[in-house]
Design a protein that fits this description.
Transcription Regulator spoIIAA, 3-stranded antiparallel β-sheet, 16 strands, globular
């Protein structure tokens, strides 16, 4: 049995190749057990597209692994199992226990749904938003401004040439400022993230779901606490209500500035660096940035997402699509038409010339970003052709 590990932030993937049978289990069990022990609470994906046979011992390993991960609030996903393996799971009544998906893209969607549903019981509705009680994994404070948001529950549309999509309430069809309220912020040490899993979720005073953040990340964020506090010295009255709904543009921008700083600090751990996360946060920060700050985020966005796209195997389809779109729009913003053309060509190649006639209203759908990129590029070509005809 060959085993290849691909680290990621939300979940780690192990690619299995060969036969999952009793004679191959010892090294596999040792490696997976050690990984789960060193990464408590983190989801695990086993890519089984290269697995030919599974015997009863292999099934027992999968079940025990699932139970161990569940006890730590983690999940197990079996990616791309063959029809023979799926049939075996049905015959042994394990299909309902072991989650199978066809691709890593489905993991992203299911994981987001699972986290949302698991955390929803700890929320309180306030002003149309679900507020959730959390504590900070860095300083232990429960003074955290946090909202539980299911971005897939909204209808998303592009307005004009705005490089950021707008969310609309599915029932009232009114625009909703979702991006501005995504970051969760500790108002004592200013640790921030757009992922609720980075914080401890509280049920009264008890920790109901522990942060998935690893010890190295916590150490790095603890060391940069003073820098974050200095970032918040912006000449405004920063009280307990600063990051609460409704957040003004300054509060939204500061939240993303803090989240980007936290993600960048964690990237100092080269073994766990997530260039996409840093680049994506800088892209979202552009929605609220002004003046010289905008130039800085444009530069950071290009730098980190370009690095992320050098290793697309570590990105989900959603991340790959967003990275291409953000790089494309930034290139146009900087009037780098040739660079934008090259990015578009790579994006189109990634999607294998997918038809632009399809529609997508879910921001989590990679096609949502590709179709928009395609439309903008065709408009750019048409605009250039029109200018040439006039000359």
């Amino acid at each position: 049995m060959e085993l290849t590990h691909v680290p990621s932030r939300g979940f780690d993937t192990f690619f299995l190749k060969g036969n999952l049978i009793i004679s191959s289990l010892l090294p596999l069990t040792t490696t997976l057990s050690k990984h789960v022990q060193e990464h408590p609470g983190k989801d695990l994906a086993l890519d089984m597209s290269g697995v030919n046979t599974v015997d009863s011992s292999g099934l027992r390993l999968l079940v025990n692994l699932k139970k161990r991960l569940q006890s730590q609030h983690g999940g197990l996903y079996l990616v791309g199992p063959s029809q023979a393996v799926k049939k075996l799971l049905d015959e042994t009544n394990l299909a309902s226990l072991l989650t199978t998906v066809d691709s890593s893209e489905q993991i992203e969607r299911k994981k987001a749904t699972d986290v949302f549903e698991a955390c929803r019981v700890f929320t309180v509705e306030q002003d149309g938003w679900l507020t959730i009680r959390c504590s900070c994994p860095i300083c232990g404070s429960s003074n955290v401004s946090a909202y539980l948001i299911d971005v897939g529950a909204y209808r998303w549309r592009w307005v004009g040439r705005d490089p950021f999509p707008t969310a609309y309430h599915p029932e009232t069809d009114q625009p909703v400022e979702v991006f501005g309220h995504l970051p969760l912020v500790c108002q004592d040490c200013y640790m921030a993230s757009i992922d609720v899993s980075d914080f401890n979720v509280l049920d009264d005073t008890r920790v109901a779901r522990k942060s998935i953040m690893e010890d190295m990340a916590k150490s790095l964020l603890a060391k940069t606490m003073k820098k974050r506090k200095k970032m918040m010295d912006i000449g405004l009255a920063i009280g307990d209500k600063f990051f609460e709904y409704p957040r003004n543009e300054t509060a939204c921008y500061q939240a993303y500035l803090l989240a980007s700083n936290c993600s960048r600090a964690q990237a100092m751990d080269r073994n766990r660096a997530r260039p996409f996360t840093v680049g994506y946060l800088n892209y979202l920060a552009l929605r609220f940035a002004k003046g010289e700050a905008e130039d800085e985020h444009l530069d950071n966005c290009r730098t980190w997402l370009n690095q992320a796209l050098t290793d697309t195997h570590s990105l989900s389809p959603f991340e790959t699509a967003v990275a291409h779109f953000a790089m494309f729009t930034v290139a146009l913003k900087l009037d780098r038409k040739r660079e934008a053309s090259q990015i578009y060509a790579k994006f189109e190649d990634y999607f294998q010339n997918q038809s632009s006639g399809e529609t997508a209203e879910n921001v989590t759908d990679p096609r949502f970003w590709f179709i928009r990129t395609q439309k903008i590029w065709h408009e750019e070509i048409e605009q250039k052709s029109r200018a040439l005809r006039l000359n």
